[in-house]
Amino acid sequence: MSRFHVEIPLRWADLDAYRHVNHARTVTLLEEARVELVFHRAADDGAGDWSDGLLVASLQVDYKVQIPYQGQSVRVSMWTDQVRAASFLIHYELRTGPAESDPVAATARTQMVPYDLGAGRPRRLTDAERLFLARWADGPGPEETEPSAPGDRATGGSAAEPGTDSAAGSVDRSMGARRAAAALRPHGPE
Q1: Which domain range does residue 162 map to?
Q2: Which of 10, 65, 67, 127 has its CA 20 to 30 A from that of 52?
Q3: pTM of the model
Q4: 184 assigned to some structural domain
């Protein structure tokens, strides 16, 4: 098991009047990192890219230290857990710079819900998506790797074959998933 690592360049526009990365822009940096994992890496690995719909049902961010702008990239490490029939969590660790030794600036997690845009409702994860998420499950593993050479978008350690997920066939009955599904239903006159 392993973490997925990506470096995101900071931009001048990420700063606020206090000359550090604005808290809302931190969420944008997390989004850019998530796109690398669930769109680019998933597609590269043959798991699809969730381009037909993947929604953030909830977001929690804990800010630890400020991120000063020094023309650097920031390192975001991600891992997954709580993979259910129709949702999963992505955890994030955002550092103030590109090195593993740089201080952690923020930790976060998002509950993600695959969504069928055509049908207008959440959908179940596919087997390929489950296998992809299992590769990045449960935080750091013994084979965690460093970011690849400049120019590479992201890296991730190689992982042993994913094991069977005991919740693989279970129905997601979490309150968050129900709220997310309810929020996605069209409202208004019928």
Answers
A1: 4-177
A2: 10
A3: 0.73
A4: no
